[in-house]
Every structure is written in C-alpha cells, then in structure tokens.
Specification:
2 copies of one chain form a homodimer. With 339 residues, chain A is an alpha/beta fold. Chain A folds into 2 domains: 173 residues, Peroxisomal Thiolase, Chain A, domain 1 (3-Layer(aba) Sandwich), CATH 3.40.47; 155 residues, Peroxisomal Thiolase, Chain A, domain 1 (3-Layer(aba) Sandwich), CATH 3.40.47. Chain A is 33% helix and 23% strand. Chain A has 9 helices and 15 strands. In chain A, the strands form 3 sheets. Chain A has a 7-stranded mixed sheet with strand order 1-2-10-15-14-11-12, with helices on both faces. In chain A, helix 2 links the parallel strand 5 and strand 6. Chain A is globular. The mean pLDDT of chain A is 96.
Chain lengths: 339, 339
C-alpha cells in the first residue's frame, strides 16, 4: 500500500537513513543540545564575505558531511532535495551548484526539511531514486535582514517572537539500507491552514493550526494514536505554539499526552539565552532531527518518532499588505528496526 | 522500470493529463497565441488591490478552471504542486490556502511547472497520489518590482532581457486516465549548471547550459534522439538562448534539428510587441504548454513532445553580491495515445 487515508504516504519500501549530519552556529552551540551537534561553528560567517555566502557554505559542508558518512561515492548521490528561507532558496541552490547532483528545490518555509523527507522517501520507495540527500538550512543573519530589520539596528523583538537558528541538517536516505537501523516509514502532506493570525512575529500561533491539521490527519490516516509513538517532535512551534497545539488538540478531543510532545525550537536554546519563544527556521528541525533525535533513536532510546515540521508561509510583502500568516506542516514517521 | 540512466524517471503508470487551463494577461493576449489561451485578462489586477493579490487570484482561478474541466469533485483533488517567482512563493501558497488541498511547494524558478509535472507524475505512478494539480504562475508586475525596478520608474531594458509573462497554467494529472489522450511518460531532473554568466538581464545565456545538460541527459537516459520527438519545446530561453542551445548542442555533436526546437517564451509575443528576447517567468512555459502545446497534441498534430522548462536560480541579493546566475532545467515527455 502506498497511500493511506487523505494525505499520508505509506512507504512499501521504506528508505533507510544511511547517514546524517548537523551544523549549528555559536549561539546554538551554547544551548542544551550543544554536545549533540556534529559541528558547532565558531565563525558564523564561515570565512565568507556575506551572510548568504556563509549559509551556502554551511549547506555545502553539511551535505558533504552526510555524504562522507554514508560512504557513498559522490557521483552515486542521485538527488538533493532541499530549501531554505532565502528569497529564491539561494542557499540550497547555490550549494547544489557546487555539489553537482540533480536538485529538487522545495519550499515549505520551516517545514522544508520534513517536506524533503516525505517527497524523497516517496521517490525512493516508488523506485525513481536509489538514494536522496535531504537538506535544509537557516541562518539568523540572512533571515533577520530579509524578513525583519538590519542587524545593526538592534531592533527589539516581542516575547512571542522566535529566533531563526543558524543551523543546517542533512539526511541521506538510501533504498538499499543494509546496516542502517532507522527508516522513514510514512509521510503526511500538509494543507495551507490560516486562522487569521496577523502578527508576523507570532509564528507559533500562525503554525499551530497547521501542525494540528497534519498531526490529526496523520493519526487518522494511519489508524494510530499518540500512544503509538515514543515521541512527537514539532519543528518550531516554540513554547507558546506548543501550548496552543495542546489546546487545539484538547478542543478536538485528540489525546496528546504532553510528556510525549517536544518542540525542536523550544529545545534549542536555554531560556537564559533570551531566544524568546524558541528557535525557528528551516535549519531548526533539520539540525535537531539529525543532530539529536536520530542519534537518540540509533542509541536505542526510541523506536518510533513522529517528526512534524511546520512553516509560516508569509513573506515581508504579504505581511506589509496586511495579509494574515498561513501555516503548513509536514509529518514524517521514523522507525528503528532492530537488526 | 521506474528509473533510467542518470536522472530520468520512467513512469510505469504514466498519469493522464485529465484537464488543463491557461490564463494570460492583456499583452500576452495580443500575441501570436492569443486565440489559444482559455482566458485573456482585460484587467491584470484581476480586481485586486495589489499585484501580489492579483497573481494569487490568477492562480486560484486557473486551478479552479482545470479542476472544473476534469469533472473531479473539489475534495477529490489530492495535492497541488506548484510555485512562482514571488519571494516565499506566496502566489501559489496563498492560492493553495483558498483551494484547500494539500500543497507541495516547489521552486525551480521558471522551470517550476515542468518540475511539478515530473514530481507529480512520480507520486502518481508510484501509487502515492491518485491525482495531482500542477500549477505555476508569473506576473509582470510582481516580478519587475521584486527582481528589478518599480514600474513607475520606466526603467529601460537591454535587448537580451526577457519579459516576465503575466500568465498561469494548470494541468490536472490523473492516475485513472480513462478517456484522456495525453500522458506524461517520463521526466528528467535537472542539475544546477553555471557557466559564469553574471549579466542578470541575460537569462537566455544563463539557462542555455542547464537546458543542454538536461536535454542531453534525457536523450542519453532514454536511448533516444531528437528525431524521436515531434517537437522539443524549451520554456523561456528566448531568441538568443535558443541560438546558444543549438550552439552548445553542435559543439557536443548532439543533433537537434532546428525545425524541431521551439521556445515558449519566443512564441508568446510578436517582435513588434517589444518583448526583447521573449517571454519568461514560471507562467510562460505553464500557459504555453497548457494553452497551446497540449491542445495541439489533443488535436492530433503531435504524438510525442519533450517539454524542457528552465529557470535562473538567482535572487536580487545574489546578483547584487556579484554572483553569477546558475540555471536549472527539468524535462517532461508528453505522449498522445490514440484511443
């Protein structure tokens, strides 16, 4: 069976996660997950002349780290699926230019990494690709000046704002998964959901309805409940968005035990680091999945994880025109199989 | 077989093109293909308050036109794949918000429509979707002020510049294709190719190398030659880019009879309309495919078409930082089966 219910893909040939890599910036490298990430940058310019070039270089390095770990020869990598927050997703496409494999550009805002896992897994399970590199990144400095204000202004943020993570995560999916213990077993598409949040600083509120919609669809489509998962990890709802998700679930009588629900963005920084509502950005869920969650699964701590990445599909232009902030969320189920 | 060669997908269950729709702006509606398009707008604001809202409305209407023609009930449409040139692809995502089905956001610049056909067809052939709506749009006014200059400035363009088309095309792919005569039978991914063109106005030169790369890969992967196709239609290389493609092919001893090669962008406007190198934008290949080429195939004029959409993966930021313009191209083979 390849399809379940409304919007979920069941992978008859679930691809293995053959390798993963994560890179984070200095601030992220002083947070609670510091010791888990593969690389913590000391220089968030990565020796480059601009923030955009820095983010491109971060993507390139992270992709290369994952490829090296997979032991696949470079020329054997058949596609890169990914995106980022930069206009025209230049961090991903320019990295793809250097890396050289076919590139499938995606955009789901901060959900892009999970979107890549879902689409990449379908292409592998369907026999179109033997492997696929799924990558997503974000950088505090590229995002701030594109979406909000120049850094030099020192503009204050409200408490509900999240902080775009300087981070990248890459996972190499392989249809031939000998020896790998993690597989992507199902994926759920997202609908664009908008409950009229107009505060462009309140990403948690804007995305929580989409996370609820996709999570509910995934559980309904698979016939499961939250109890069937060891952990449900949202991407970057943040502290406030997480509470809103639980409230939406309660109102719909969908049981989500709070102790099973974590948020990658809320896990990324200590409160004392003043990241307000928590980390966000495409690289948030990507780095925390690859750096922390997948490693915990490989260590045997969990058998079944549901990753629900979400994105806010606004642009500065849409916000300036007074539009509300639509959200979208993708879900991917990762399972450990004991050898 | 689902995979051929380096980067081509062969669809074991080739989806039918169950319906298509096209909308173009007033200038496009005075060009050589005027009578072919389903809708020619008299008001390129579509009654909206901003150009961005206009483009969102154009996408919504075009998508609805295709759905209506397919006779599928609204709730039966399982996914929308698409993108546009607006930052954060807001025309597509905001239209998806209104339309309500799951949304897979893509970005390949002006190649996005063909990218949607390739990925959508794979998801249908692989059994993950029963149908998929592939849409892409562009609007002269949203593109000009985002990529270049405010319209009110009346800035001159050099001769090699193309003109972003105000246009949208939508094709509804259906795995259950009873009665439909056109199918998408194969698709080829693109690599990001950059031969160091730094003139951000010369999209033809920036993209020709990528078109050549993907076209050569498609022919090699399928074991075919250009003679196996009734027509090869590039997206928006324009007049100059087409010549460059032929030159690249000749240098590589890849035979492409010039009479078999057309360009959607070069076909969209009369020379007298002063569109310089020709039309461009995501909506160019989308509208010309859906409005003209597919109809010609359905009328029996052609049996096998190769559509090669290309995109220039620059952003204003990358150009302003002195970066060259990388290109990418996707190919989709559309074939007519006689009932």
């Amino acid at each position: 069976m390849s399809r379940a219910g409304q919007q979920t893909f069941i992978y008859d040939n679930p691809p293995a996660i053959a390798a993963h890599a994560s890179i984070v910036g200095p601030k992220e490298g002083r947070g609670p997950l510091a010791d888990w990430f593969d690389t913590v940058l000391s220089d968030d310019l990565l020796g480059q002349k601009s923030w955009e070039l820095a983010e491109m270089e971060m993507v390139r390095r992270c992709a290369r780290d994952a490829i090296c770990r997979s032991r696949l020869p470079d020329e054997a990598v058949q596609a890169m699926l990914g995106g980022d927050l930069n206009n025209q997703i230049i961090a991903s496409s320019f990295a793809a230019r250097t890396l050289g494999m076919p590139f499938i550009g995606l955009y789901g805002a901060c959900s892009t990494f999970v979107q890549a896992l879902v689409i990449g897994s379908a292409l592998i399970s369907g026999g179109f690709l033997e492997n696929a590199l799924c990558v997503a990144s974000s950088h505090y400095c590229t995002a701030e000046r594109q979406f909000r204000f120049p850094l030099e202004l020192g503009t204050q943020k409200p408490p509900q704002a999240s902080r775009t993570a300087t981070a990248c995560g890459a996972a190499l999916l392989n249809g031939n998964g000998d020896g790998a213990v993690l597989r992507v077993t199902s994926g759920t598409l997202g609908r664009v959901i908008d409950l009229n949040i107009t505060d462009a600083n309140h990403m948690g509120a804007a995305m929580a309805p989409a996370v609820f919609d996709t999570l509910a669809a995934h559980l309904s489509d698979t016939g499961r409940t939250a109890d069937d998962y060891d952990l449900i990890a949202t991407g970057d709802l943040g502290w406030i968005g997480r509470d809103l998700l639980l409230a939406l679930a309660e109102a719909a009588k969908l049981a989500i035990p709070p102790e099973k629900l974590i948020d990658c963005g809320a896990s990324l920084f200590y409160q004392a680091q003043d990241a307000h509502a928590g980390g966000s950005g495409c690289g948030c869920v990507a780095s925390v999945s690859c750096g922390w969650l997948m490693k915990r699964m490989e260590a045997g701590e969990m058998k079944r994880l549901l990753l629900v990445g979400s994105g806010a599909m606004l642009s500065p232009t849409s916000s300036q025109q007074g539009q509300s902030v639509p959200g979208i969320a993708y879900a991917a189920c990762i399972e450990r199989s004991d050898p």
